[in-house]
Amino acid sequence: MCYNKRMIEKRVIAFDIGSKRIGVAISDPFNEYAMPCETYVRTRNFTVDVEAIAKIAKDRGVGEIVCGMPFNVDGTESIQTVKTREFVEALREKTELPIALEDERFTTMQARETQIMGGIKLGERKKTIDSIAASYILESYLTRKKQENKKAEEPIMNKEQENEVYEEDRIFELEADDGSIEKLYHIATIEYRSEMYCCFQKAEPESEEEEDEVIIFALKGEGDDAMLEPLEDEQLLDEVFAEFCHQYEEYENSDEAMELEIEQ
C-alpha cells in the first residue's frame, strides 16, 4: 500500500560557491530544514562548472535554487562577491529554475564549529565544510521565507499564536490507496544508507500508546513524483528507527527518545 503525499513540495537546493569547491545542500520534502549533500570540486573551466551545478539542480528535481553571497563582515562586497555574482548570472542562463540569493556571512564559521563539535579531524574537514556551509545558507533562507509568509498572512500575531501556526504547518493529511485519510505530524526526515525516510506521529492519537508511536515511510521519487511508501521489511524498519532515535538523542532530548516506540 502506498501513500501519495500530494502536499510534498518541490524541494529547494542551495549552493555555497567557492573558488575551489561548491557545497551542496537540499531541503527536506516539506521545506522545513536543510540537509548537507555532496561537495562539487571545481575544474579550471568556468562553463563546465556552471553546467555541472545546473545539472545537479536538475537531477535533484528541485523547484528553486539558493546561492550564498559572500559579503564582508560589514556588509560590503568583496572580490569573491563579484566572482560569485558572475557565476550566478551564468547559472541563470543554464537553468529555468528561479534563483534566490542569501547572505552567507558567518556560514563557514558555523560549519567549522559544527565539524569541531562533531569530532571531525582536521584533515577530513575539507570534504564536508562546504556542504555544511550550504546547509546553513539554505536553513537561513527557509527560515526567512517562512517568517515572511507568516507576516503576510497574519500581520499581528503573538508568540503563542506563532507557535500554533508552526505546529499546524507540520500536520499533513495522507491519503491511502483505499481513500482513507489520516492526519500525521511530521517530526523528521532522515537519510539512512543513501535513502530518505520520513518520520511521523499521529496528529490525533486515540490512546497513550499512539502518542509515542513513530510511523516511518520511505520517500521515493522527487518533486511531483514523490511518494511515501510504508516499510514492509521489518529489519530495515528497525534499522531506520534506530537511526532516527540516534539522531533524536543528539539533537533533541535523549529521555524522550527512549520513550518512543515504532509502529509495526
Structure report:
With 264 residues, this protein is an alpha/beta fold. The chain folds into two domains: 12-150, 2-Layer Sandwich (Nucleotidyltransferase, domain 5); 171-262, no CATH class. It has helices spanning 46-60, 79-94, 107-117, 129-153, 159-169, 208-211, 234-251, 254-259; strands spanning 12-17, 21-27, 34-41, 64-69, 99-103, 171-175, 181-192, 195-202, 213-220, 227-230, 261-262. The strands form two sheets. Strands 6, 7, 8, 9, 10 and 11 form a six-stranded mixed β-sheet that branches. The protein has a five-stranded mixed β-sheet with strand order 3-2-1-4-5, sandwiched between helices. Helix 1 (46-60) packs across helix 2 and helix 3 (107-117) packs across helix 4 (129-153).
Keywords:
264 residues; alpha/beta; 8 helices; Nucleotidyltransferase, domain 5; disordered N terminus; six-stranded mixed beta sheet; five-stranded mixed beta sheet; 27% strand; 40% helix; 11 strands
Biggest sheet details: 6 strands, mixed
Mean of the pLDDT scores? 76
Number of extended strands? 11
Helix/strand-derived class?
A: alpha/beta
